[in-house]
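Regression test attached.
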Amino acid sequence: MTHTANNPVSSNDIAFFADAGIEMMHAETKLDARYNMDMFDKYSGDSQVVLFPKTTKQVSEILAYCNEHRISVVTQGGNSGVAGGAIAHHGEIILSLRDMNKVRELDPVAGVLVADSGCVLEDLDNYVQEHGFIMPVDLGGRKRCMIGGNVSTSAGGLRYLRYGSMHGNVLGLEVVLPDGRILDALFSLKKDASGYDVKQLFIGAEGTLGVVTAVSISLAPKPSSAQIAVLGLNEFTKIHRAFVLARQHLGEIVSAFEFWEKRCNEIVVEYEKYTSPIGPAHEFYVMIETRGSCKKHDAEKMDWFLEKVQAEQIADEVKVFRDQEEMEAVWLFRSQMASAHTKSGCMYVYDFSLPPKHQYDLLLATKKHMESLGLFGAKDSPVKDITLFGHVGDQNLHLQAVAREFGGDVEAALEPWIYQWVGSHGGSVAAEHGLGAHKGKFLQYSKSHVVVDTMKQIKNLLDPRGIMNPGKCVDRA
Amino acid sequence: MTHTANNPVSSNDIAFFADAGIEMMHAETKLDARYNMDMFDKYSGDSQVVLFPKTTKQVSEILAYCNEHRISVVTQGGNSGVAGGAIAHHGEIILSLRDMNKVRELDPVAGVLVADSGCVLEDLDNYVQEHGFIMPVDLGGRKRCMIGGNVSTSAGGLRYLRYGSMHGNVLGLEVVLPDGRILDALFSLKKDASGYDVKQLFIGAEGTLGVVTAVSISLAPKPSSAQIAVLGLNEFTKIHRAFVLARQHLGEIVSAFEFWEKRCNEIVVEYEKYTSPIGPAHEFYVMIETRGSCKKHDAEKMDWFLEKVQAEQIADEVKVFRDQEEMEAVWLFRSQMASAHTKSGCMYVYDFSLPPKHQYDLLLATKKHMESLGLFGAKDSPVKDITLFGHVGDQNLHLQAVAREFGGDVEAALEPWIYQWVGSHGGSVAAEHGLGAHKGKFLQYSKSHVVVDTMKQIKNLLDPRGIMNPGKCVDRA
């Protein structure tokens, strides 16, 4: 791999950073272990030094120096990624954006926020809510993740269905390029058709093309009313029918459309001790949230939608939640799905996008494949559960295979088979978690070689010495 | 300029295309003059041959041949651009996408359309409406413009406020690269965080990086109700206050928020003979459209909004239009603004994005500047009118300077002064019309040199021989 060609950090380098007045932690004195470990203790690194620049100029000085001396750099925001993308596996310098955490500007008319990359997502959301807005992105890691990391992983999350992607919402970026030049593309304009939109390259690049130091982002008006309906269904295709009806009858107020299947529901009840929002058991569950600007109107729309759902016999059970505490309980139930699986056994988790017509087949095909290898389906099979839940509206599925123990034949049976299956059914091998440390090699299954070659050419163009997060996301040719 | 280095089309080349079975028009037999002229008769070209490929494979054959023989190519969709981007100024081959006009797929659950680039926007809108959707983009040229051109110019248009940008709505592209390789990035997935989003580079590239042959685009649910309010105001800042209130009270149903000033209104009345939607004369006019899924709810929301507007004494006059014919008349009044100016004299038109706080200053500063040069303000000044209208919600302004005749000192007085002014006030020199043939040289005023250099590096990387639309948008270094 190319990254091994780069140089380790020397005492001269440390002296340079100290002289430049850059705050740091290093292994000889004290380096907090959490910078070398991801939040699920899955990926660990061996960085010897963490730098804490306070300004874009300092980031520029650091990268110019590292590029000149061929020292590799891993940028870290909240280090809350789940794909190992922010871990320094090869002794790279960690460049933490922790101390670049100021709001630069909020335009209350245009609804545009400009903020340093190290701002924590939840802090920004709280801040803009005081001005009548919400951030267009929200995710489970909101208390820890930082906006620069959200941009760098092209975070999807819970508001995607309503507000769309980072590619649409990010209006501008300030990026320090690997050679230290500052790419000032921190525009705050919604319409801008003047040349190539170069900032787009850094959205989802997982820190492999430069360091995003500031973000300009379009905000959404803060909704004033919310409600949730949970449906119990007995056929997967009815989920899609419900989605089409929701779009027709709930129209502009639908803000989330989630589903999970029976076994997911059981696992949350069993391992998190939460009460199922509806019962008795159904084959499938759908959770629909609306957010709007008028409680009365939103309630009426929901009633019309549910009448239609019942008239078409789509759901066996329907329950509406309008009380704040009850709604939070439903969201909590939904959001504990991943951790409940972790508690139930040794989880292999996958984050795919798939066209609707192939979504359920993913679960059936995976079960069949694992059964055919003798790894699933019997009472004492190595894999206890294979489950599916996800964001229907975004075509984003999370598939879990829960084994009795890590190791054995399970991972080799799943990979690359599952990536190949997803790629050959029009899916993506990484929907919202990024490629990180592990999935770059599976990219070929869902992206044509011309696309992958073009990515590598761009990597070579912008980071010719390969100092930025080597081995992650897209590496050099 | 680099493009002069490329070769003219020879009879050998014509023979090659004929042998390859590619339909064509050429000057020796008959070449329809409209391929060498833009729709406003402003830009003219001198292409000798227009090719009409029917398949992506044919486009690939054409480009591979042209790249090998260093022959320049201008791609043409509906040729309805207003910036000369699709005109073959230097005898380039025109590659028309006219015959690539099939819908490839519509996913009725996901709401995703995949179509050939040569599909006319209005045809696509009609087609998807049959399935309960609308296109996320609409513009005045809808009867003629093609989806490939919409993507290549990053078209903004009339639905931008509600549905956002092409960068957010386009899910995938099929692009033939200058060397003939087919970049199959025709994904139909909403969430996809797997590597660099290379398709983004072609959105807004105005055909300088390759030929977009197919587009996958996210559709919006078709709204079932619409209404329009027109407000008369006497201060520019009240427009912004009305916008903030609309976001609060009309929330998720606002679909357009347009403004124009007094003189624009007079010019439409005088030169198009349309009746002003409200009267008597106001300093400023605001037009707010809502589109939603329930007529009754939408009407109530509009009433609450207008009560608030009146309580805060924002508007001197308010009128609501809910009748279909009346609403069409208001839109017609608004959409005739550009053509009315053309009829009133010799129009210099500018398409800028500007942050709200500088929007009105643009008009005042331009008037003052032209007055100081003795070109505006007196009874017989060379410039009769300087006017402003635009899309407030998108920060997109159109400024017109109407002269008594073309030529003289007017253009030199306006340019580059006006681009410089816009650039130094955080604006963009091209909001939704693209850079085209003329504005590339002004890009430096609104984009930093690192951004422009990066664009040029990307052009060099993807089109090293500079055969794609040379001299337009971003040219090689």
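Expected vs. actual: identical. Chain A has four domains: 2-99, 103-221, 225-332, 345-444.
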